[in-house]
Every structure is written in C-alpha cells, then in structure tokens.
C-alpha cells in the first residue's frame, strides 16, 4: 500500500515539496504519495487529524503552523526543542513525533553543496524569529569563532543569544546580539539572512563593510534572480552568493530519511529545480 505524506501550510500552492519528494521517491524506489494540504489559519489541528485518520504516515509543516505542530506533538526531538518549532511530524500508531530538519538542511547545503566550513569563522545571523532559531544550534555545533545575531528589535537578538549562550554546542563560540547599526566596523566571513525581508522585496538595514574578503552571503529565501540582500551583498564584494533552494531540498531530504530510512541524493534535485 502506498504510504501517504503531505506538507501543510497557508499559503501552500507555491510549495515545491511534492515535486521534491516525488523525485526522491523515484530515485530510491520508495512507494509514497506526497501532496499539499491547505489548512485554515485556525484549522491546523483539524486538518492534521483528518489526514492522520485517513491513514497518513507523516507530514511536513510550514508557515504559519510550525509552533502549533511543536505544541501538539507527543514526542519532541532535541532539535525541535532548540528551535521551539517543528516542520516534521511522524505518525506512529496513536503518537505524533515532532522534529525540525531546517537546521540540518541549512548546514548540509552550506558545508556539503557549497563546500564552505564555518569552523572558526565569523558568522552573522540576521533575524531572531523561527528561521533563525531553527539554525542556531546547528550553526554553533560547527563551531564558528564568532556568532553574532542582529535584529531590528535588539532585545529579541539579546534574548536569543542569552538562551543559547550556555548550550553545550556554544562552548567554542563567542555569541552576542546587536542592533544593525552596531555592526558598523565588524566584518564577517558568512552572512545569513534569516529574516522575511526578501519576501517583501526589502533589505535588512545592514551597514556597508560587513562582508569580509572571500565571504559567503546566504539568503534563506529563494526566487527568480537575486534577492535584495544578495544584490546588496554582491555590490559589497561578497565572494559567493547562495539562496535557500539548496536548504529547501536538503531539509526535505532529512525528512525523507527520517520517514523512509534511506537518504536520497540531493544535487540532481537541486539542479532540476534550478533549471525550471
């Protein structure tokens, strides 16, 4: 019998997850069906329970339901606890297990696909919301020499830095939170945009000069052409630019592995999506 999975969100029509998982299934010979489910803003639990009752095996969860998915799970992985959000659910009998594959997907894209080590690097993480929380612990585990969190509301950056300051993975890194204007005079080897600014065609208020020689600019968003952040990074001399398409495919591969016990090859799928 074909095992059923889905991605649940609102909006959801744009999601590439069904195409990604279909490619993984063809590649690995797995018999699965993966669809999109649109949940009303106040109807995530009902949508999920209806899907479970129909015999589904699991689900991915996207905006705006990752916090709700975390809260309703019976078992929660350490990665999800660190992020305080879940994008992965596995249905095992009457229990729901939650995980967060975003951080693992980000790290695999940067270190494996882009071939960039963050060990001993100076890293700037922009944003203090769910996207930033999802990658913070995996980032610290690399470990960078310096990890600075910048946010328009500096209190959020400071709270996030304080929450992870004594995490076991933070022992080798200097972790701090700053306002954007306080970044002037600092230089970073890796600059990560974990804000939603690119969705709105906007640019975080980065001062000039933050990109060190040979630096990587990484935007977790993706789309046609360069995002405003990546265009700014290029004008500022960033050596390498990357959007979030690779992270999207890698976090999906981590989900696929957790569900099916086999890890698919991601580079052919990334190339397939790029060519489209």
The chain-level mean pLDDT equals: 95
Q: Biggest sheet, in brief? A: 6 strands, mixed
Percent of residues in helices comes to 25-40%
Question: What is the number of helices?
Answer: 10
Shape summary: globular
Order of helical and strand elements? EHEHEHEHEEHEHEHEEEHEHH
Question: How large a portion of the residues is in β-strands, by DSSP E?
Answer: 15-25%
Strand order of the largest sheet: 2-1-3-5-6-4
| Low-confidence parts | none
The value of Rg in angstroms is 19 Å
Distance between the termini: 32 Å
Report the strand count: 12
Broad structural category: alpha/beta
What would you say this structure looks like, in words?
It contains ten helices and twelve strands. By secondary structure, it is of the alpha/beta class. A six-stranded mixed β-sheet has the order 2-1-3-5-6-4, sandwiched between helices. It has a six-stranded parallel β-sheet with strand order 9-8-7-10-11-12, sandwiched between helices. Helix 8 links the parallel strand 11 and strand 12. The model has no long low-confidence stretch (mean pLDDT 95).
Keywords:
37% helix; 276 residues; alpha/beta; six-stranded mixed beta sheet; 10 helices; six-stranded parallel beta sheet
Would you summarize the structure shown here?
The chain is α/β, with parallel strands linked by helices and 276 residues long.
